[in-house]
Structures are given as structure tokens and as C-alpha cells.
Fold:
Amino acid sequence: MVSKRSLFVKKVVIGVSVGVSFLLLLVVASVSLCWFRKRKNNQQTNSPAPSTLEAFHQKMSYREIHNATDGFSSRNMIGSGSFGTVFKAFLSAENKFVAVKVLNMQRHGAMKSFMAECESLKDIRHRNLVKLLTACSSIDFQGNEFRALIYDFMPNGSLDMWLHPHEMEEIHRPSRTLTLLERFNIAIDVASVLDYIHVHCYEPIAHCDIKPSNVLLDNDLTAHVSDFGMARLLLKFDRESFFNQLSSTGIRGTIGYVAPEYGVGGEPSIHGDEYSFGILLLEMISGKRPTDELFGGNFTLHSYIKSALPERVLDVADKSIFTMV
Structure:
């Protein structure tokens, strides 16, 4: 009888010991998993800015870019913006043209723009986004800091030059105007990108600078949204950092297209992009910039269009549309 009780006690002790050991194992595993996750998050959060470039398996050197642009010749310059100049470049090894955006590192905010564009575009893919091929983080022949971004080349330039051909030099002027259907398709392309970066990305992105010059057209006049230098990953948005940048660089976006709330300290949001897209649509239909000399005070592009609805729509529509019908 004693032996049976001893055997029972022994079994209980073993069972309890195994159970406690298993529980401790689960606790240790859970703690270890949490620790590794926290460490990984801290590494991602605290990693130095240049690590963003690790997303590009093949980087270009300054010498390669210098040669591909013929020494950054003015003949190859195809555009300029707030933080840099864009050149057409030919990569002989791949037998294709690319667009190279060279950052002006003397301009305050250029490095932030470079990193914002790398961070925004390194993990996203959409047929209506200009594809970021690679980047260059180096020094030039004089020992100065050099940063450049390399994109797919868009042979039909920007939507801006198609909407306002009279402002372009003759050699860059489109041979015709955009039809109503082409404008409609371009609007759908831009809307598709906004839907993607606002809703379907792993981390929502606010572009913050939607305008015709940032909408580029390929051979088929398919639109590709470019220039994410002002973009913000909304889940990583740092309010204090934004206001510091706002106070040092001015309104976030382009006058005429920027959402009014940005002018009074509003945070970057998808609603700001939606406002800019609305102005873009009005410009595509009317052929007038929001900064046209016609507008001033309370008379804006929006009120100009609104005043013609619904009976006088044709009065405010871009007359060049009708020449293509």
C-alpha cells in the first residue's frame, strides 16, 4: 500500500514538474520573442539614414552618372525642382535612357528630400508610379557630397508641358494637345496611384505635392506620378519634426495646389493629396493654372469653374480640347 502511494506521489511530482517546466519554457519563449521583436523594431527605428540605400542592390557611382549625362550637360537637362535638377542619361551597358535627379546638397532640406524619396519608393510598386531604379550616395570629383536618384525615363515629359505648351520652348513643345479621353485616362491613372499609396500600401503615404509637373507620361501617354521628395509615411509621422521642417522651409507643397490646412500648420494627410488632386482635375479641364493672373483675392480657379456650372461649362473648358474632337 505504501509503495502504491509512493508511486502515485512520484507520478504527481513528475507531472507537476513537467507541467511547471513546460510553462516556464512557454514564458521564456514568449519573453524571448517579445525581446527579439522589440530589438528588431528598435534597429529599424534607430538605424542611420544611409541604411535606406541598402534596399538598392546595385548602386551607381558618381563617375557613371557623370559619363551618362555627358558631364551634366545642359543639353541633357529635362527639368528642375525645389531640391535638384533632372537630367536625361544614357546607360550604355544596358542600352537604355534613364532620368537622373541630382540633388542640390547646398539647398536646405535636400538631404531630407533624398531620404524621403528613397524611403517612400523603395518598397512600393504600381504601374502608375515612376519606378525608382537605384540611387547614388557618393562624392564628386571635387570632394563634395553627391546624391542622385535614378528613375525610368518618361519620353513624353510632364502633364504640365502638355497642358501649357505655349509656355514651352519650341523643341520641347508637344506636337498636339491632349484629347478629352486622354485627359480622362490620365486622371484615372493619378487617382489609382493615390488610392494605392493611401489605402493599399503596408504603410499609408501622403505624397504632399500632387501637381501637373509631377505627373509624367510614357510612350503611350500613360501617367506616372513622380517626386516623392516631400512624401510622408503617415504611420511614422513625427509631428514635432514636421513643424520644425515647416518653420524652416515654408509651406509643404506648391502654392496653388497645396491644401489650405498646410498653410496653418495642418498635418500631412491623404486629405491634402485629395485637395491637390481636385485642383489638378480643374486645371486639366480648364487649361488654367491655379496661379493664373486671372485669379486673385477670393476669385480662384475653384470659384471660376463653380460660377460656370451647370449652364456655362463650355465657357470655362480648355478650348484646345475641342480642336481634337
